[in-house]
Amino acid sequence: VTGENFDQSPLRRTFKSKVLAHYPQNIEWNPFDQDAVNMLCMPKGLSFRTQTDNRDPQLHSFIITREDGSRTYGFVLTFYEEVTSKQICTAMQTLYQMHNAEQYSSVCASSSCSMDSLASSIDEGDATSLAKLQRYNSYDISRDTLYVSKCICLITPLPFMQACKKFLIQLYKAVTSQQPPPLPLESYIHNILYEVPLPPPGRSLKFYGVYEPIICQRPGPNELPLSDYPLREVFELLGLENLVQVFTCVLLEMQILLYSQ
C-alpha cells in the first residue's frame, strides 16, 4: 500500500506500482528513468475496481525535464484488466474482512456498547450509513470480479499528443478485442519504435496504426512551437473568465500556479 490511506476501504486504497516492461531496453541519448516513468504513469499508485465501478480508459500526459533543460514527453493510457490470480483475489477478500471488523469495533467503541446491542445503541443515521458503506464499498470473491489498473505509455522527444493518443487507443482496442488484429501486436510496436521517423520541421507524416492511419505535423523553423493539445479542453476546464485572467497574468509576466487532482 502507498501513502497513509489505511482508513480507506481496500478498493479505495492505492498500492505500489512497477514497470513491467519497456522497449527498447536502452537508448544512449535518452536513458530510461524507471522511477520517474513509474511515478508519472501512475501518480496515485496501483488501484483496484470491481464490475460495479467505472473502468473507462483514461489518457494523461507528463513531461520529464532533465538538468540540461532537455525535455521528454510521455503519453499514458490507463485501463483496467481482470485479475486472474486467485491469490490476489483472496488477499483482497481478507483485507475487506479486516476492514469491516475494524469499522464495527470503532463504531462500537464510540458508542460504548457490546456487539449485541450495536444496532440499538447507535442512532439510525449511523446504522444506515454504515450499511450503505458496506453494501456499495465491498468485495465478495464469490460474487464480484476484481480488476486492476494497468498503463501503456509512449515516450517521445516531441509532444505529438494527438498521434500518440490515437495509437494508444488503437493498441488498447487490439489488446481487448475478441478478434485479433491483422498482424501480431509486436509488429505495430516495432513499427512505431524503429520504422516511423520523426517528421522534418515544416512537414507532416502519415503512418499506420493498428486499424487506421495516423497523421502528425511538425511546425517549421519560423512557426510557433508544436502545441498539439486541444484548446477546447482548456476552455471547458478553466472557463472563459479564468482563461482570460491566466492570459493576462502571462502578459504581465506574473508567476502562475495551476493546482489540480
From TrEMBL:
One of its GO terms (molecular function) is small GTPase binding. InterPro entries: cDENN_dom (IPR001194), DEN5A/B (IPR047278), DENN_C (IPR043153), Tripartite_DENN (IPR037516), uDENN_dom (IPR005113). Pfam families: DENN (PF02141), uDENN (PF03456). Keywords: Guanine-nucleotide releasing factor. Residues 1-261 form the UDENN domain. This is DEN5B protein. The gene is Dennd5b_0.
